[in-house]
Amino acid sequence: MTDRKAKYSVSQAFQQAEAVKQVREKNKNWAERRQALRKTSAPSDGWRRESRVLPRAEARHFARQFLKKYPKAAYWSEVESWRVLEGDIIEFTMRRLHTSD
Could you give the C-alpha distances from 90 to 35, 37, 83, 87, in angstroms and in order? Predict the structure, then answer.
């Protein structure tokens, strides 16, 4: 019985990794396009942004660590935007003020 559970866990992790790979291939230029847009637009608006494409559990973990490292009280940290992609993959952008660095 434990063998089946272990095989299921490995296959589930493999499927999730494949889903992440496919989404990254489809959206590989998303962060680059956003960065280029920010560079060509008006001067810095005072925010630092980090964009990621991760499975839901990893996205939650990343967001918690980000908010722990850059607390809202000091950096006005927040999730700026997010969307759910195929395979329960989350594409999101975190932002914070850089003046507190």
Answer: 19, 21, 6, 9
Give the integer Cα–Cα distance in Å for 54 and 24. Answer: 9
The per-residue pLDDT for range 27-86, each reduced to its tens digit, is: 766 667 777 776 665 556 788 999 999 999 999 999 999 999 999 988 999 999 999 998
CA angle at 38 for the pair 35 and 40, rounded to the nearest 5°: 110
Residues 6+ apart with CB under 8 A from 31: 51
Question: How far, CA to CA in Å, does 75 sit from each of 19, 33, 69?
Answer: 33, 25, 10
Single pTM value for the model: 0.58
Please provide residue 91's backbone torsions phi and psi, each rounded to the nearest 5 degrees.
-110, 120
